[in-house]
Amino acid sequence: MKIFVAAIAAVAALSTAVNATAESTIHIRVHTPSENDKNVPQWGTCKQANSALQPCAPGNVCRVRANDGYGQCIKEPADNYQQCGGNGWTGSCATSGWSCVKKDDNWWGCQPGNGGGQNNGGGQNNGGGQNNGGGQNNGPAVARWGQCKYTNEPNPRACEAGSVCRVRDQNSGMCYKEPAGEWEQCGGFNWTGSCTGGLKCVRRDGEYAQCVKG
User: Fold this and answer.
1) What are the DSSP E strand ranges found in 79-146?
2) Tell me: the pLDDT tens digits for 32-42?
3) From CA 72, how far away is CA 176, in angstroms rounded?
4) For the whole model, what pTM was predicted?
5) Could you tell me which of 141, 123, 34, 135 has the C-alpha nearest to residue 87?
């Protein structure tokens, strides 16, 4: 009889231990980053001086400036009026019939046709002077990234809504988004704009600043 009772007690204890183990089991999910998660987004920094290249998100290429080794993920091929070339590199344009036209040593942009009418000035690394509407030439508004100041015109042209004409000198100016979004340019030579909520305008060098998280 004692042996029977002891056996029952042992079975009960074993059952309790099994149930406790089952109830205390913790399921852990581990997220392994995919290759796309590791990629740098458009306008993100993909290369610092003396560092290795980081892969860009699909549809973008890491473009490294020849003068300082700094690299940024740029869309390739570029859209209309977007950057398609810079210091030490040249890309292509997505739209048939558009050409990658040099504005200065630091910026090439996609322009319709062969880019007629532009001069060697204006571009991503431009700046100096903000035009808020006064003294502008009459005519249709210039699209973002389009040239808004020419050599033979005393006043800059008006930019489309949400953009501002940043004038580098008497010969060149370009329409920039204002305020700028994440990774977008917010400053240039002698000018600094603003960023959308929560972002800071961080200067990379004397001719370029971009919006990044604080």
Assistant:
1) 83-86, 89-90, 98-104, 107-112, 130-131, 137-142
2) 555 556 798 88
3) 18
4) 0.45
5) 123
What does the block give as tokens for 93? Answer: 């344009």
Domain ranges of the chain: 77-213
Q: What is the DSSP letter of 95?
A: S
- State residue 170's pLDDT score: 64
Listing DSSP states for 3-20 in one string gives HHHHHHHHHHHHHHHHHH
DSSP state of 40: B
Alpha carbon separation from 178 to 27, 41, 53, 137, 147 (Å, rounded):
48, 21, 30, 20, 16
**Contact between residue 74 and residue 124 where contact means Cβ atoms under 8 Å apart:** no
Give φ, ψ of 22 to 5 degrees.
Answer: -65, -40
pLDDT tens by residue, 157-189: 899 999 999 887 666 788 889 999 888 889 887
| pLDDT less than 50: residues of the chain | 11, 18, 20-22, 24, 26-27, 30-31, 116-135
- Polymer length in residues for the chain: 214
Residue 38 belongs to what H/E stretch? helix 35-38
How many CB atoms within 10 Å of residue 137? 14
Instruction: Take residue 74 and report the two structure tokens written for it.
Output: 């740029």
Instruction: Name the amino acid, one letter, at 172.
Output: S
Following CA atoms 34, 36, 40, 42 in sequence, which dihedral angle do they give, to the nearest 10 degrees? Answer: -160
Instruction: Please tell me the predicted confidence (pLDDT) of residue 10.
Output: 52
